[in-house]
Specification:
This protein is of the alpha/beta class and 245 residues long. The protein folds into two domains: 180 residues, 3-Layer(aba) Sandwich (Rossmann fold), CATH 3.40.50; 58 residues, no CATH class. It contains eleven helices and ten strands. The two termini are 12 Å apart. The model has no long low-confidence stretch (mean pLDDT 95).
Length: 245
């Protein structure tokens, strides 16, 4: 399916609600290979952005990417079970050697920081594919971790949000379970699925279904929409229909 259903859904939701409160978990630098960046900047007067990134190294890049956005906040933490989360990351001294083909044209830091994960094996496999010894290139980071609702309250954000976008390298389902969606009630949830094991993915879709979300698999990503927002469901059905004939 060539239709960008995420963009269709974003445009439909902003038409319905007028303004969107958007939370991005795993924001990285906020710009490169980020599916919401262009939309957020184009609709900067109609979007409020909460950009959550656990890796302190990336904060200056994230601040620069959104420096011209009039309504943005950055939080240096992870979303998940309360406490401290151990992440596994590529050491900065190895950034220049981790340059996979898909990252052609990206800033030197972007691909390496993009594989940071709570799953050490995930980072190891990515490094091995590029001929790098993980024992030499990986470091661990202990980051503050909390559920989403308390963070929203701490930052004086509304208790409900419109969009939740996640890029957590195999940790996306944990983020959704800690996003308190029965309270935060995002109209859209966009997340990576290709690094989530099949059994956990099935459990996640069941969980989302139980909270009134319809989930569409879009290649390596998934889009879940709150089916109670009837105009939103109708917009997606209309976008999908030509591809089902």
């Amino acid at each position: 399916m060539t239709t960008n259903l995420y963009l269709v859904a974003l445009n439909a939701l902003i038409e319905i609600r007028g303004k969107l409160n958007i939370v991005v978990v795993g924001a990285n630098d906020g710009r490169v290979n980020d599916p919401i960046y262009e939309f957020a900047m184009k609709m900067s007067n109609k979007t409020s952005m909460l950009l959550i990134e656990p890796n302190k190294f990336l904060l200056p890049y994230l601040q620069k990417s959104y420096s011209s956005h009039p309504s943005q906040q950055i939080a240096n933490c992870a979303i998940g079970p309360e406490g401290v989360l151990k992440l596994y990351a590529v050491k900065a001294s190895w950034f220049d050697r981790f340059q996979p083909a898909y990252a052609k044209g990206w800033p030197q830091y972007r691909a390496a920081t993009g594989i940071t994960s709570a799953n050490k094996e995930h980072v190891e496999k990515a490094l091995i594919r590029e001929g790098i010894n993980p024992d030499d290139a990986i470091e661990s980071l202990d980051v503050s971790c909390q559920q989403l609702s308390p963070l929203l309250a701490e930052l004086s954000w509304p208790s409900t949000i419109d969009v939740l976008q996640i890029d957590a390298e195999g940790y996306d389902d944990f983020v959704i379970h800690a996003a308190n969606i029965q309270v935060t009630m995002p109209g859209l949830i966009y997340f990576e699925n290709h690094n989530i094991p099949e059994d956990r993915m099935e459990a996640l879709v069941d969980h989302l279904s139980g909270q009134h979300y319809r989930t569409y698999k879009l290649g390596g990503d998934s889009l879940s929409i709150d089916s109670r927002i009837n105009p939103l469901s109708a917009a997606l059905d209309e976008a999908i229909a030509p591809h089902q004939r």
